[in-house]
C-alpha cells in the first residue's frame, strides 16, 4: 500500500470526515426505561413485590389476617378441609385448604423469603464471580489455574444433591442464611467463568495497553478500563440469576429443604398445593402466578436494561 | 518518464512534493531525547506440561542501538516479524527488556519502577495501530483523552482538564463539541485523531507511532500523516514512526532505520537510505515497492529474495541476512557485521556494503 503523491496535498486540518449523530446526552437509564411500557410494567411488578416484602406486617394488618392464623370458619371440616369460598372480602385470595390460613397473607410473607434469599444470593454470587473472574483473567498463570480448577470442581459437582443433603442435615434455625450461602457457593463459577474469559480478551486490547503505557496502576486498569466493559455482561448474568435463584429457592422449599414451615414461601405453597390441585386449583394458581410473573419480569427487565446501558445498542 | 537506467524505482516520480517537507529540522547537535543501547528482548520458549523448561528463545529484538534527537522523526521499516512492534513496546515500557539500556533524557528506564517509571512515561506516549481497539468503547472521547491527565494529576489541574481536552481536540482537527460522544460514533480517521490527542495530552517529548495508518483508508492515511507532521512542526516533539509502508516512511521521516530479524541493518538520513541503499536487504526491500509508472513494471529491476526469513528462535550465525543474501561469502557466516558508516554516509551492518558485486541475473 502506498499513498499517492498527489494525495499528499490534502490539507492536514480537513478532518471532519463525517458528521455523526446529534450529541448524545447520558440520559438516565431509569427515565429511558420508564418510557418503555413493557419495561415499566415489569419494573412496577418487581417494585410491588419488593414493597410487599418490605411492608408485610403492615399489609397483613390492613387485610386483617395473619399468615399463621387458622380460620376454621372458612373451611369445610366435613369435606376434608375444602375452603368454603374463593376470593372474598375477608380472605382476598382465598384460604389454604385444610388449615384455613389466609393465602394473601402467606403470599405477602412468602415474597419476603423469596426476595430476601434471591437478592442476597445474587449479590453474593456477583461479588464472588466478578472478583474471582477478574483475578483469574487479569493475572492468569498460577492464579488462573487454581481458580479455574475450583470453578470446574464446583460446576461438575452434583449441586442439587449436595444442597438437599447439607440443608437437611444442618439445623433448621438458620435455614435462610444457609440457603443463601449454599446457592452462592455453587452459583458464582457461572458468572466467574464468563468474566474471566472477557477479562482475558479485554486485557489484550490496545486501549488497556494505552492505559498501561500512560502509567496507570493495576487497580486503575481493572476498574476503569476492564470493569466498565464487563458491565453489560454482568448485568445480563445478574438479571438471569435473580429469577434463577427465586426458582432455586422455590424448588428447594418445594423439596422440603428450603424455608422451614410455618414460615411461608412461594415454593412451599406450590408444594403443598400439589395434593389439592384437582379440588382447589386456586391454591396452586395464586402462588404459581406470582412466581411466574416475578421471574418473567426480571428477565424482560434485564433485557431492556441491557439495551439501554449498552452504548452500541443506542441509536 | 523515468529512464530504464534508473537502478532505483524511487526516482523522480516518487520525490516528495515541495512545500510539504517538515519545517522544523532535527538538531543532531543537542543531546538525544532517547538513547537505546544494545536493547535485547528474548521471549522464552517453554516446553512441558507440568514442569516447564526453557528450550529456546525467540530473539524478537537482539541488540538495537538507536538515538532519537529532539524534533526529528525516525522511520522504522522492515517486514512482518522483524521486531518493529516489539521495539515500540519496549520503548513504551509494555515489555521488559531482556538486556540493554533505554535512556530517556538521560534517565535510565530499564529496571526502574513505581513513581520513577511513571514520571518517565509522561515523556513517551504511543499511538496504536488499530483505532478500533485502541479506544475504550465504554468511554466518551472526553474521558479517553483525559485519562492520561487523570493518571498524572499534576500535569493539568483538575478544573482545567476539560479545557485542555477541548484544546487537544481542536489541535488534532476534531470538533470540541463532540466531547461527549463515544468512539464508535467516529470514522476510522477521526478515531485515530482521538488516539493522537490522547498521546499528546501529557505533552510528551517522544511519540511512538506503531503503524498508525496501516488500518486506515489511503486517503485518510495522508490526512493523518500530515497531521502528525504538522503537530511535530508546531510542538517540536520527536516521532518514532513504525511502518511497513516505505513511501509513508519516506514522506514523514528525517532518518530511517531498516530492521531485519530483530536488528537494525541500515540506519541513515532518508535520502541516503532511499537513494543509495548500502545493505542488500534495504536494496531488496526498496526494489519491491510497486513502481507508479506502469511502463516500468516487470522490467526486471526487482530483487526477489530466495527463501523465507529464518526463524527468530534460531537465527543464522554471523550476519543474519546471509541465508538470503546474494553477496554472502564465508566471512558472513563467521563474523557478525557491526553497524558501520558506509560510503553513502548511512550506517549499514554488512561486510560488503554498496553496489558490488551485483546479483547475477538481475537486469541492469
UniProtKB/TrEMBL annotation, chain A:
<keyword id="KW-0472">Membrane</keyword>
<feature type="transmembrane region" description="Helical">
    <location>
        <begin position="38"/>
        <end position="60"/>
    </location>
</feature>
<dbReference type="InterPro" id="IPR050366">
    <property type="entry name" value="BP-dependent_transpt_permease"/>
</dbReference>
<feature type="transmembrane region" description="Helical">
    <location>
        <begin position="234"/>
        <end position="260"/>
    </location>
</feature>
<dbReference type="InterPro" id="IPR025966">
    <property type="entry name" value="OppC_N"/>
</dbReference>
<feature type="transmembrane region" description="Helical">
    <location>
        <begin position="176"/>
        <end position="195"/>
    </location>
</feature>
<keyword id="KW-1133">Transmembrane helix</keyword>
<dbReference type="Pfam" id="PF12911">
    <property type="entry name" value="OppC_N"/>
</dbReference>
<keyword id="KW-0813">Transport</keyword>
<dbReference type="Pfam" id="PF00528">
    <property type="entry name" value="BPD_transp_1"/>
</dbReference>
<feature type="region of interest" description="Disordered">
    <location>
        <begin position="1"/>
        <end position="21"/>
    </location>
</feature>
<dbReference type="InterPro" id="IPR000515">
    <property type="entry name" value="MetI-like"/>
</dbReference>
<keyword id="KW-0812">Transmembrane</keyword>
<dbReference type="InterPro" id="IPR035906">
    <property type="entry name" value="MetI-like_sf"/>
</dbReference>
<feature type="transmembrane region" description="Helical">
    <location>
        <begin position="150"/>
        <end position="170"/>
    </location>
</feature>
<keyword id="KW-1003">Cell membrane</keyword>
<protein>
    <submittedName>
        <fullName>ABC transporter permease</fullName>
    </submittedName>
</protein>
<comment type="similarity">
    <text>Belongs to the binding-protein-dependent transport system permease family.</text>
</comment>
<feature type="transmembrane region" description="Helical">
    <location>
        <begin position="115"/>
        <end position="138"/>
    </location>
</feature>
<feature type="domain" description="ABC transmembrane type-1">
    <location>
        <begin position="111"/>
        <end position="302"/>
    </location>
</feature>
<feature type="transmembrane region" description="Helical">
    <location>
        <begin position="280"/>
        <end position="302"/>
    </location>
</feature>
From TrEMBL, chain B:
<dbReference type="Pfam" id="PF08352">
    <property type="entry name" value="oligo_HPY"/>
</dbReference>
<dbReference type="InterPro" id="IPR050319">
    <property type="entry name" value="ABC_transp_ATP-bind"/>
</dbReference>
<dbReference type="InterPro" id="IPR017871">
    <property type="entry name" value="ABC_transporter-like_CS"/>
</dbReference>
<keyword id="KW-0547">Nucleotide-binding</keyword>
<comment type="similarity">
    <text>Belongs to the ABC transporter superfamily.</text>
</comment>
<feature type="region of interest" description="Disordered">
    <location>
        <begin position="1"/>
        <end position="32"/>
    </location>
</feature>
<dbReference type="Pfam" id="PF00005">
    <property type="entry name" value="ABC_tran"/>
</dbReference>
<keyword id="KW-0813">Transport</keyword>
<feature type="region of interest" description="Disordered">
    <location>
        <begin position="290"/>
        <end position="316"/>
    </location>
</feature>
<feature type="domain" description="ABC transporter">
    <location>
        <begin position="45"/>
        <end position="286"/>
    </location>
</feature>
<dbReference type="GO" id="GO:0005524">
    <property type="term" value="F:ATP binding"/>
</dbReference>
<dbReference type="InterPro" id="IPR003593">
    <property type="entry name" value="AAA+_ATPase"/>
</dbReference>
<dbReference type="InterPro" id="IPR013563">
    <property type="entry name" value="Oligopep_ABC_C"/>
</dbReference>
<keyword id="KW-0067">ATP-binding</keyword>
<dbReference type="InterPro" id="IPR003439">
    <property type="entry name" value="ABC_transporter-like_ATP-bd"/>
</dbReference>
<dbReference type="InterPro" id="IPR027417">
    <property type="entry name" value="P-loop_NTPase"/>
</dbReference>
<protein>
    <submittedName>
        <fullName>Dipeptide ABC transporter ATP-binding protein</fullName>
    </submittedName>
</protein>
Amino acid at each position: 500500500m502506498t499513498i499517492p503523491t498527489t494525495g499528499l496535498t490534502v490539507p492536514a486540518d480537513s478532518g471532519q470526515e463525517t458528521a455523526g449523530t446529534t450529541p448524545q446526552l447520558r440520559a438516565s437509564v431509569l427515565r429511558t426505561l420508564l418510557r418503555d411500557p413493557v419495561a415499566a410494567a415489569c419494573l412496577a411488578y418487581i417494585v410491588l413485590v419488593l414493597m410487599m416484602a418490605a411492608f408485610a406486617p403492615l399489609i397483613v394488618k390492613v387485610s386483617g389476617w395473619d399468615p399463621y392464623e387458622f380460620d376454621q370458619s372458612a373451611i369445610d371440616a366435613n369435606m376434608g378441609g375444602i375452603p368454603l369460598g374463593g376470593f372474598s372480602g375477608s380472605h382476598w385470595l382465598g384460604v389454604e385448604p385444610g388449615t384455613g390460613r389466609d393465602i394473601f397473607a402467606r403470599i405477602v410473607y412468602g415474597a419476603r423469603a423469596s426476595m430476601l434469599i434471591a437478592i442476597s444470593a445474587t449479590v453474593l454470587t456477583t461479588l464472588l464471580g466478578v472478583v474471582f473472574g477478574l483475578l483469574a483473567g487479569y493475572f492468569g498463570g498460577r492464579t488462573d489455574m487454581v481458580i479455574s480448577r475450583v470453578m470446574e470442581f464446583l460446576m461438575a459437582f452434583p449441586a442439587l444433591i449436595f444442597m438437599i443433603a447439607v440443608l437437611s442435615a444442618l439445623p433448621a434455625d438458620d435455614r435462610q442464611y444457609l440457603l443463601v450461602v449454599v446457592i452462592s457457593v455453587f452459583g458464582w463459577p457461572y458468572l466467574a467463568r464468563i468474566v474471566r474469559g472477557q477479562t482475558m480478551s479485554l486485557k489484550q486490547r490496545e486501549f488497556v495497553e494505552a492505559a498501561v503505557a500512560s502509567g496507570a496502576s493495576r487497580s486503575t486498569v481493572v476498574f476503569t478500563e476492564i470493569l466498565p466493559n464487563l458491565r453489560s455482561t454482568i448485568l445480563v448474568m445478574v438479571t438471569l440469576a435473580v429469577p434463577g435463584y427465586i426458582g432455586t429457592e422455590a424448588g428447594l422449599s418445594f423439596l422440603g429443604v428450603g424455608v422451614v414451615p410455618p414460615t411461608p414461601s412461594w415454593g412451599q405453597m406450590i408444594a403443598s398445593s400439589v395434593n389439592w390441585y384437582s379440588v382447589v386449583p386456586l391454591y396452586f394458581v395464586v402462588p404459581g402466578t406470582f412466581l411466574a410473573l416475578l421471574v418473567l419480569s426480571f428477565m424482560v427487565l434485564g433485557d431492556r436494561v441491557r439495551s439501554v446501558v449498552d452504548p452500541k445498542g443506542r441509536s | 518518464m523515468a529512464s530504464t537506467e534508473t537502478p532505483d524505482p524511487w526516482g523522480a516520480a516518487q520525490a516528495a512534493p515541495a512545500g510539504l517537507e517538515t519545517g522544523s529540522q532535527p538538531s543532531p547537535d543537542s543531546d538525544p531525547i532517547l538513547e537505546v543501547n544494545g536493547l535485547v528482548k528474548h521471549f522464552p520458549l517453554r516446553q512441558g506440561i507440568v514442569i516447564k523448561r526453557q528450550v529456546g528463545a525467540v530473539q524478537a529484538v537482539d541488540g538495537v542501538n538507536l538515538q532519537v534527537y529532539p524534533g526529528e522523526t525516525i522511520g522504522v521499516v522492515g517486514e512482518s516479524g522483524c521486531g518493529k512492534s516489539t521495539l515500540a513496546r519496549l520503548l513504551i515500557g509494555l515489555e521488559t527488556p531482556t538486556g540493554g539500556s533505554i535512556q530517556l533524557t538521560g534517565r535510565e528506564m530499564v529496571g526502574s519502577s513505581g513513581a520513577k517509571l511513571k514520571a518517565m512515561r509522561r515523556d513517551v506516549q504511543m499511538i496504536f495501530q488499530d483505532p478500533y481497539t485502541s479506544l475504550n468503547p465504554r468511554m466518551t472521547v472526553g474521558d479517553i483523552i483525559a485519562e492520561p491527565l487523570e493518571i498524572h494529576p499534576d500535569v493539568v489541574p483538575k478544573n482545567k482538564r476539560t479545557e485542555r481536552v477541548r484544546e487537544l481536540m481542536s489541535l488534532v482537527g476534531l470538533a470540541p463539541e463532540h466531547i461527549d460522544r463515544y468512539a464508535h460514533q467516529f470514522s476510522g480517521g477521526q478515531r485515530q485523531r482521538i488516539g493522537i490527542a490522547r498521546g499528546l495530552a501529557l505533552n510528551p517529548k517522544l511519540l511512538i507511532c506503531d503503524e498508525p495508518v496501516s488500518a486506515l483508508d489511503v486517503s485518510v492515511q495522508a490526512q493523518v500523516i500530515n497531521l502528525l507532521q504538522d503537530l511535530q512542526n508546531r510542538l517540536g516533539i520527536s516521532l518514532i514512526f513504525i511502518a511497513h509502508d516505505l513511501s509513508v516512511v519516506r514522506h514523514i521521516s528525517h532518518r530511517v532505520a531498516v530492521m531485519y530479524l530483530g536488528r537494525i541493518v541500515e540506519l541513515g538520513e532518508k535520502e541516503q537510505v532511499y537513494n543509495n541503499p548500502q545493505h542488500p536487504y534495504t536494496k531488496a526491500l526498496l526494489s519491491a515497492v510497486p513502481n507508479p509508472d506502469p511502463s516500468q513494471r516487470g522490467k526486471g529491476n526487482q530483487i526477489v529474495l530466495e527463501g523465507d526469513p529464518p526463524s527468530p528462535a534460531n537465527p543464522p550465525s554471523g550476519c543474519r541476512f546471509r541465508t538470503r543474501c546474494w553477496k554472502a561469502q564465508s566471512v558472513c557466516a563467521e563474523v557478525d557485521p557491526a553497524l558501520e558508516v558506509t560510503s553513502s554516509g548511512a550506517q549499514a551492518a554488512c561486510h560488503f556494503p554498496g553496489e558490488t558485486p551485483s546479483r547475477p541475473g538481475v537486469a541492469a
